[in-house]
Design goal:
about 260 residues; 4-stranded parallel sheet; 8 helices; 8 strands; about 35% helix
């Protein structure tokens, strides 16, 4: 057999926001939880140059685009992130990464990056959605702020998944207050229950890559309420999806994602 | 009656690309062709500061965002345009404009701008599409480069207009070679004929705001071929739509376009 | 430039019902509120011959079709209106009108009239809907009687706008009791609130051309309840749309609206 | 058992056009071909008073609405037929008919008539379509004139059957030249073949109630070309459907078809 | 005329479950209630050999497939029924039946059987659904157990009827406890009311062929609550549909249902 | 962290057909190509008892259901496979497998098996489709025989993926003649080209799990023709998907896939 799975995969986890203090040891361990042990994940953050945090990687001189939104909670924030994200993606490809995870559920510049580079690129939305499709007919996304619901519904419509992803709901807790675990789980539980009972949801996607380590608790609370449904954490789904695509050698269609014309 | 149509409307025509030589006297006259005589259109271009060209307006010191794509022919180009476009939109609102036309059929940052400002904002796509809905059941967009078809189909899907706008076709002539009128009309005619005969199109939208002054010739050629169908030029439709929304006092829904959170 | 906007537009506002006392000075002023000052609107009513009311126009001998429904609150009423409406539309074109507004939200005979004449024809539904598309993702129509909801949902389905216009609700106040302003606004407010909170509506279209002068009050009440959403009055939208189409020289596609065969 | 099938069913076959010479002995025999022997079909034609032709029935004095289109080949023709059709339907109910077939594939005033009377009403479109659904996934309608395609696609869209009825094609032979059997079958065959090979059609509905006695020949020709597909004649389907609904005691939902308000 | 309706129709009513005691004299009378008097219905049950019950028919030696589910309340049950159902269908065709009703609302092996035999085959879902389409825009199915809702929604989606059949609800009474008439009607009434008031349903289909003789009572209770809507019993609809298809000579499209390849 | 990826995954590859000679050393190597080295795949075939072939596994006494179709090329074949497949799936769960791949693109009994067992179950369709969604907007399936196209389109419709998976095409080479590599690739190339040029496909899924080791060649031929598109082999996609779901601990929603009632 000539084709082989790529064994040592390097993934770039790119944070498309400038808020400080997001990357932590705990988060990095958590994200790597389901990856193979040869897989390397480096974390970059726009506005901070290319500094690899966490897992071993090559330290690189800065200089990339340094602007971007504090957090992404609106179409406005997302549009601000575009040029920086693309700048970093191009560098990532040059440095030999096998896949890129743009670490935001709004999928900022994901399609643009797919045009630009020759490696798989995912945001937070698609991987969780595609995994959920294999386990449930009707899916609900529970996100952070209502401001981003229209954007997400737009992404669902663009993906023609409206008949499977039946609603997007928000807990309305700002992104930078996501550390209060108890409060978050309570709010997620409340919205998930409404979605199951009113929207007919049969699976829950946590619609913010900043929701980490809460799926298990949420799943248990729903189970106690009589609902045995899968709960998906977007960042873990995305990193695993990046790993799988890299291993399988999957690359974007150049009929969907043509290379941008050069001037 | 307390409510009155706003009589003196000021529209900003914002070019979201940095290619030089786009704005001309001819283009400005052309664009104003269907506007009321009290309506003022100022033209700004990202990367050039705020210089008002053509119709009388206030000259303003530069300093706004100066980066952006040469032209917009891909998702990549569009993502690059975001921050500059938003910067200029905010200034436009501060300066008292009544509506903004982001002069590109790809609708770059249109939804983000609607969140940011309190005045109507249109790109090239929606106005032509909404006008066409009143005249034909099945509509085809004929654009410039194939690279942007996926983006446009994404916008159509987001707008849930897939059942009305039945295809997007490209003439595959780069944007900066749009001055060869004969060649363009021939290419547009060929694609329009294919769309009528293969896609069932009953109206044609010219899917690039750079197609100016060709609709009439195209319409006549199609008529000679036996097809009496409307042909829409996006820039004229958009400016007229901006004028009408301003006069009617229409403003975006704050449930669809919430104000971006402030940090 | 050869093409010019038509400056002096003449619109026929055709009432397709026979109930007396509908046309008033107040209504006429109101309807003209957003039109350009050179635009002339004449009002005809089926069953009354061609008498121009309100704005100056040519008085003409009667003789046109004289049958029709008292009001339009069902498919049945709408079917009754057809032949008279078409008779008047043909006369309007002969007399040189530039556009026709068939003044009913049910769009009676609108498509038939587009086949018959060579000028734009609108009912109440499309103009408000097409304007709303530029401001909100999800739209609700609030109409008068439940009897006409199926017809309206049929029109929405025919227009393939089901994914944008998410519901049609009724206040269940008969058309000829629409003069009690307080009561109407209260009922409209109640249904609009339900639509926002239960259907996810982000904009409201008043689904009867007889709702006049209530949008502003309704909009304010919704704003006080925390919902900043646009509210559209169908008759104003329709007349403005007629004016714009006439000015732009837009004419229906003859592939969608073929001329009726002659026998 | 209290409920019983109604055994002696009386159906009104109402011709909504004024062209002379349509009703013939041959047509009447043909239409009754699949009905039970106790079933009585009377044929009325608008513009001719209530004269029962063919099968035994009660002769009645005229006086009903006498206007209507020559034939129905456009939205315009259909709108003209409305008031007369409704007038006759009301008389039919008073005279004790059990079901009404409005004998036109465009379904003129069918929904209005369902509101008006308390017995089942069908045009030509729905019965053939509903029967075809049980035999094939993808269905094509082949009709007479292109002028009526938009109307039919509108009816398909209103019925939300777009994903099953994949196209409407026309032979472009005027309704009053439908007697040349050879020519018609050749034209139907050609369009059916195109629909099978290009649209993926798997069943053919003859989209004009005037296509009588051609289905068998068309079916055989398609079979010789290798395509074993059902072919439906609308009038036979409709009369049988009327008989079945009458026997089963089915009546329209008064939530879909509310009674028209009385003034 | 060469073509004639088949007058003496023989229908096989095939029970695809092995639970004893389902076939009763009462059920057989009830099912034949709307059929023509020359029509013969024989009842077979998988697992019991070919024994004709009720109406006169030919007794035949057993030997057919004898496995199958106790009842059908899940995808699992349905998959178990497949081979037996197909075995009996083939025998039925050999014995000269004109149509087959696979007596279960889940439509087990219906499509497979259509491939296999040359006569019409229906389960419980399609006939009731197709009849309901002619009387109401929005339809709800009320079935027995929640377990089968996903399967039914899958069948609705496969049939592309999602926009007409707006929900499936369950009374959650197991199939083998369907003899308590009072309790069933109460439960059906409750779900029907919810569907009318929350889902906008305008007609009710009883989504289990074991619901017999309850439609009339349910319809009356809904009428007393102010809702005049049709209620469909699946088994009666299916048997009548079988009879009609047989009489009309309708046979499945061989482009949709190709003959299975032989090995 | 409490949650951990399961490291040693055991997958059952269940062949739901009885044709001999399908399992070969080459096929097994090929299928394991992209799996982690700790992952064990056992291959069972219905009708042959539980014999583990290829990769090391536990040999088990037979006795499971022994009936099934020779190959699966129709709805009929698929229905025959149901009971055996379910019988084996239950045994697999008892024996501690972590996931099941029912090795057929028609997804026979996949949903039924998900109800029955508590581990992920996939057929060939969903994994390839879900992977393709991340790389292309418009996807075409190229399968073996035309007989199975309707079934596959039904599965696509049930999954609500019609707007992404734009066509299913067949090479019309029987499953048991799939060893002629040259001929197959030529036929696949021809259908893929038609799909790209006529259907607008941007990615190709090989719609039979028996297509093994041809994707690379097909991809290269398409590339030479100017189309750089991904090509997916269903069996590899499915096994990788099984592995990932097992590692992530994903389990089916019990609101979509309720446990079958026990009698």
């Amino acid at each position: 057999m000539e084709r082989r799975a790529k064994k040592d995969v390097r993934i770039l986890n790119l944070l498309p926001v400038t808020a400080p203090g997001i990357v932590s040891e705990k988060m990095l361990n958590y994200m790597n939880n389901y990856l193979e042990k040869e897989t390397v994940v480096d974390v970059w953050q726009i506005g901070y140059g290319i500094t690899t945090t966490g897992r071993p990687g090559e330290a690189l001189p800065g200089g990339a685009a340094k602007y971007g939104p504090h957090t992404i909670e609106s179409e406005y924030d997302e549009a601000l992130a575009g040029p920086s994200v693309l700048d970093y993606c191009q560098k990532a490809e040059e440095l030999g990464y096998d896949a890129i995870f743009i670490d935001c559920f709004g999928d900022p510049a994901v399609k643009a990056a797919r045009e630009l580079v020759n490696i798989p690129v995912f945001g937070g939305f698609e991987p969780a959605a595609h995994f959920a499709l294999g386990l449930a007919d009707k899916i609900c996304i529970v996100t952070v702020m209502s401001n981003i619901i229209s954007l997400m519904k737009g992404n669902i419509a663009k993906a023609h998944l409206n008949d499977r992803i039946v609603n997007v709901r928000a807990v309305d807790i700002p992104v930078d207050q996501l550390n209060n675990g108890e409060k978050i789980i309570e709010a997620l539980y409340k919205q998930s229950m409404k979605s199951i009972e009113e929207d007919g949801a049969q699976a829950i996607i946590l619609g913010c890559t900043g929701f980490i380590g809460v799926a298990e608790s949420l799943k248990n609370r729903l189970l106690q309420a009589g609902y045995d449904v899968p709960v998906f954490e977007a960042a873990q789904c995305a990193l695993k999806m990046c790993e799988v695509y890299a291993k399988m050698g999957f690359r974007q269609s150049r009929l969907t994602y043509m290379k941008p014309p050069v001037h």
